[in-house]
Each structure stands twice: as structure tokens, then as C-alpha cells.
Specification:
Residues 1-24 are annotated as: Disordered. With 122 residues, the chain is mainly alpha-helical. Helix content is 66%, strand content 0%. The protein folds into 2 domains: 12-43; 62-121. The relative contact order is 0.07.
Amino acid sequence: MFKVTPNPPGSPGNSDKSSKTKKLDEAAERVLDYYLNPKPTDEASGKTQTAQLFMVAPDIDTETLLANASEDLLSISAIAADLADDVDGSRRSVILAISRMADGVHLLVERAMDRLEVQAAG
């Protein structure tokens, strides 16, 4: 004779397994969110995130900024002039134009620095 029996109730091991599975699923979700959907670090502090890779420190004075710009322009001009010696034709003309433009901007920066010195003295 065949006796019909109901499905056995869940064993304590099964409920423990489902809670472990749930914890693993939650951990996997957090890991995937961390790597695939990162939140901006400034979001928590309320700051807006900028798309700048480099930034000039906000507390640097104008004279220092101009002095560094002047030195950088001299470097650009020197590199371009040196490179112009190694090429011919239209490339040489382009490189010499870059060198001359850097020289012109360097003069503008130097004039701005002179004006700052006059303002500071007077």
C-alpha cells in the first residue's frame, strides 16, 4: 500500500543556507556597485565634482603664477627653436612660428609682472 506524505518541512540547515546565500548576494552586489558604479567622492561632502585633471592651487599669488608662466614660455620657445634646427620645409616654418608666438606671449607676461611690481611699489 502506498501512503501519501506531504513535503517535509524545511530543515534548519536549509534556512541557514538561504541566509548565507542572501548575504553572499548582497556582498556581490556591493562589490559590483563599487567597481562598476562608483560614486563620486565629493558627493558625500556636498561638493560638485569637476572634470579637471590638473588644478592650480587657489592660494598662489599672481606674481608667482606669472613667473612660472614666463619660465614655461621660455622653455617652450627653446624647445621649438631647437626642434626647428632638425627639420626643413614647411615643418620648420610651423615650429618657428610656435617659438615666436611663445616669445610674444612671454613678453606679455613680463609686462604684466612689471606692472605688478609698479603697483606693489606705489
